[in-house]
Amino acid sequence: MRHQWLSVAVLALSALVLAQGRYQIGTPLTEQEVQQWNIRPSILANGVGLPPGQGTVDEGAKVYTAHCASCHGATGEGGAFTRLVSEPFPITLEVDSVDFAVGNYWPYATTLFDYTRRAMPFATPGILSDSEVYAVVAYILYQNGVTDGSEPMNAQTLPRVQMPARTLLQLDPGTQKRFPWLKLP
Amino acid sequence: MNRRKILQLLGKSVAAGAFFKLSTGLAQGKIPQGATEPMKTLGIPLREYGERSEFEQKVIRYISPNLRSRHTGASFTPLDQLEGVITPSSLHFERHHSGVPNVNPAEYRLVVHGLVSRPLIFTLQDLKRFPSITRTYFIECAGNGQNGYRNPPDMTLTATRSRGLVSTSSWTGVPLSILLKEAGIKEGARWLIPESQDAAAYIRSLPLEKALEDVLVAYAQNGEAIRPEQGYPVRLVVPGWEGSIQVKWLRRIELTDTPVMSKDETSEYTDVMADGKIWAFTWLMEPQSIITYPSGLQQIERGFHEIRGLAWSGFGRVRRVEVSLDGGRNWKRAALEPAPDPLSAVRFKVNWAWDGRETVIMSRATDEKGNTQPTQEEFFTRWARNNRYHYNAIQAWRIGADGRVVNGDRTLAGAPAQLGAAGRGGCGGES
Fold first, then answer.
1. Is the dihedral of CA B410, B415, B420, B422 positive or negative?
2. B359 and B231 within one domain
3. What is the pLDDT of residues A103-129, one digit of tens each?
4. Fewest CB within a 10 Å sphere: which of B123, B189, B205, B411?
5. What per-residue string of b and e applies to A37-54 under the rule 16 or more CB within 10 Å gives b?
């Protein structure tokens, strides 16, 4: 008899779960708890997610020498690892892919902040402050001739930087066909 | 099969010289006498976790000697030493950006947040409680085939270095759509931004429609926990799309209204086209095939050979694979085994009696949507010579009169091309 009641209770519970279309598994989080977990928020192309702080080209040169030059060359020309500064633009069919770099290939300036804060320096990611990241981003953009270095990089100035390679970027036509609503920022 | 048919078959085979080499595979007078060594002593006792034979230790992933760091770059599945369709988990190709993180499953958490009604955090046990599905899918790096961009072709190319950035596994997990429904998708959500917990905190953008269609939040590979190199304890499996979007060591999924345009969907994994444009979001993997036997740097004898290879397509099922034994003049349809599953690899086979004359063999796959692998020349009418990804042109193997097999691709007119400077690592793992 007790078992029967239990079965009825279980059935009722299942019906409740199904009625909501959910399994009621997982623990709800408050927005504050989400932010605690979201330690390196994604930076969108329109600048959403950029933190406070700022940095100049001169400050960036110091950060670069201390943390980046050993892999990417004294001024971004490349070394053991990827070249960051490059002259040839636009990319032509004759340009060696080793010369694809920030100035001629990267379409969004915000990506540089997002990636640097996320993943660099290679062996010790996360050690740079937000202002140091802004500074080194300012330095790399200046080295590539993308900016004139007159203003510091921050949450307002960085999303406004126009990258030359953005004019070359377009959506894969097959992807566009499948996702007609999709637009590149 | 009746006796007459067997005799007919045998007659045909002998006429073609097919079994000739097999019957002389062992030199005269070399038949071992008496008991073989393993019959004279006790074998190894029971053990808790299996090991492969000590004689198979040389079947390993290929890692380019040019890499400056093994914390980035790729290792290749040794396609020319494997059979069947499933890739052993220990030989699944690797591609990671900042090494393989060591994640404790007891501390594992996945957070789903952003444009959802109820942000949620899941433990590994939570994920395993949901209804599960198991599917066989290939995963292929967008840089697979990258050695095909070299001009003139690399004469030391093997099948492994040609197409070894693909592997096929049985994946088990919870459909991502279930987790998203659990969190409640808000109006306006179009994209997911999955984030990894490796040292690169790797992120990508994935359209919500694909996530709801067939994306898996996987925790098992070939029946056991996912290998650390493949994303232990939890990764995304995004069937048919480039491997780099199938985020490993998954820790966070944010729903947004725009894509993030992360480093790995802008400065890498974008494609330079022949018209000078750069294409973004080239997610789908086009049809591919590779003859794994006989293939580059192998040596064959005159007589019977079963030509074997693998084929796959991100568009769905492989419909057919054709093999040419005469440099692309004539093509014959290969047998497929097993019956092709969507977005999984298939083994193809053709019986062949080699007469000892120099020839070029090649394979081409066609998928159920009618896409066929291009020739080298056709490929480069669409993609730029200095592009780095999505190379899927037909791979040819030249068999010399001495039975030695080498890369049979042609040198193309125009500028020579390498894969950039040595030591950069990168997606293809060989630049």
1. positive
2. no
3. 999 999 999 999 999 999 999 999 999
4. B411
5. bbebbbbbbebbbbeebb
Tell me if B281 and A80 make a contact (CB, 8 A cut-off): no
* Nearest Cα to Cα of residue B363 among B377, B355, B371, B375: B375
Q: Which amino acid belongs to residue B127? A: L
Choose among B120, B178, B386: nearest Cβ to A96: B386
Number of domains in chain B: 2
Please judge whether A92 and B207 are an interchain contact, meaning their C-beta atoms are less than 8 angstroms apart.
Answer: no
**CB contacts < 8 A (A, B):** 191
Q: What is the pLDDT of residues B371-395, one digit of tens each?
A: 999 999 999 999 999 999 999 999 9
Residue B354 included in any domain: yes
Q: Are B173 and B219 in contact (CB under 8 A)?
A: yes
| DSSP-derived pairing of the beta strands B206-207 and B191-196 | antiparallel
Query: What digits encode the pLDDT tens for the residues B199-245?
Result: 999 999 999 999 999 999 999 999 999 999 999 999 999 999 999 99
Interface confidence (ipTM) of the complex: 0.91
Pairing of strands B405-407, A153-154: unpaired
Give yes or no: residues B157 and B264 share one domain: yes
DSSP bridge pairs for B194: B253
Q: How far apart (Å, rounded) are the C-alpha atoms in residues B86 and B78? A: 12
User: Domain check: are B219 and B265 in the same one?
Assistant: yes
What sign for the dihedral angle of Cα B389, B391, B397, B398? negative
Contacting A residues, span 75-104, partner chain B, CB-CB under 8 Å = 78, 80-82, 90-98, 100, 102
**B347 is a domain residue:** yes
Q: Are residues B180 and B104 in the same domain?
A: yes
> Treating both helix axes as pointing N-terminal to C-terminal, what angle do A130-143 and A57-67 enclose, rounded to 10 degrees?
100
Q: Which of A111, A104, A92 is nearest to A166 (CA)?
A: A104
> Which residue range(s) make up the domain with B129?
94-278
